[in-house]
Amino acid sequence: MRDIKYSKNVLRLQLVTLAMMLFVLVASAQSKSRELQPTIKTAFATPDGYERHNQDDYSTWLINHPLKEDIIVKYYDGRIKPNNNVYAAVFNYDIGKRDLHQCADAAIYLRASYHYSTGQLAKLQYTFTNGKVSSYIGYLNGDRIRILANGTDSKVSRGKARRDSCTTFRKWLDQVWMYAGTYSVGKFDTKAVNIMDMKPGDLFVQGGFPGHIISVVDMAKNKKGHTVYMLAQSYMPAQENQILVNQATGGVWYSLDEMSYVDTPEFVFENSQLRRFNN
C-alpha cells in the first residue's frame, strides 16, 4: 500500500512539474511572438538623413504598438476593405463586431489605451456629442448612462461598482465610441495646435456629422530642420486602424511645410485643423 501511495504522489509531482513546464513554454512562446510582431518602429525606416523626432512617452508607445502581420484592413463585420493605395499597415487590436470603431474612435482608442496601459486612469475621460463627460473612474464607481431626447441629453445614475479589468475598460470604451464622435472630439476634448508645433499623437479634425479625424503616429526630422510625419485613420463603416499611404510619393511619410492643406487618400484637411488632446 505504501508503494502505491508513493507512486501516486510521484505521479502527482510529475504532473505538476509538467504543467509548470508547459506554462513556462507557452509564456515564453507568447513573449517571443509579441517581440516578433511588426511595429511602426520596426516596419518603417525613416527617410535617409532623418531621425525620429519629438519622442515622448506617448509617441514611443505609438511606434511600438503591434501591427498586423498581414496588410489587410477588415470591417467590423469581417469584410475586407479594398486597398486602392490607401493603407500600408494595420494596427493590431480588436475593434469589435459592431459598427462603432470609426475615425474618432480610433484616435480615442490609441490615447485611451496608452493611458490605461500606463495606469493613468484619472485621464480616461471623453465627452459625448451632447456635451456630457464620461470618465472611466466614474464607470468603475458604478455610473450608468441613460441617453435621453434622441441623444441630445443623458442622465447618470449610480449603480453597483465595477471591477477594473481589461474587459471592463473595453466595455467603457465601447460606450464612449457609441456616444462620442468627431464633433465632440473637436469641440470639447482637444485644443488647436499650430501646424509647425506638431507632435506625435496630434490629430487632424474636421468635426461634424460625420466629419473625419486622422492621427499623427510618428515623426522624423533631418539636420536641416525639415520634418516628415506619418498618419493613421479608421473610417466608415467601422474598420481597423490603418497607416496611410502618401499617394504623392507612394511612401508613408508626409512633408511638414507651409502648405495650406494635407491631402490624404480619402480626405483633405486644412493645416489649421490640427488639434491635440487635452488629457
Describe this structure in words.
The chain is of the alpha+beta class and about 280 residues long. It is about 30% helix and about 25% strand. The chain contains 7 helices and 15 strands. The protein has helices at about 1-35, 40-45, 55-65, 105-115, 135-140, 165-180, 180-190; strands spanning about 50, 85-90, 125, 135, 145-150, 155-160, 190, 205, 210-220, 225-235, 240-245, 255, 260-265, 265-270, 275. The longest helix is centred in the first third of the chain and has 35 residues, at about 1-35.
What's the topology here?
Blueprint: H1 2-36, H2 40-43, E1 50-52, H3 57-63, E2 87-90, H4 103-117, E3 125-127, E4 133-135, H5 136-140, E5 143-148, E6 153-158, H6 166-179, H7 182-189, E7 190-192, E8 203-206, E9 212-222, E10 227-233, E11 242-244, E12 254-256, E13 261-264, E14 267-270, E15 274-277
Antiparallel strand pairs: 1-9, 2-11, 3-4, 5-6, 7-15, 8-9, 8-15, 9-10, 10-11, 10-12, 13-14
The major sheet is characterized as: 9 strands, antiparallel
Overall helicity:
25-40%
SS field, number of helical segments: 7
Quantity of strands, as a count: 15
| SSE series | HHEHEHEEHEEHHEEEEEEEEE
The unreliable regions are 26-33
| pLDDT averaged residue by residue | 90
CA-atom Rg in angstroms: 23 Å
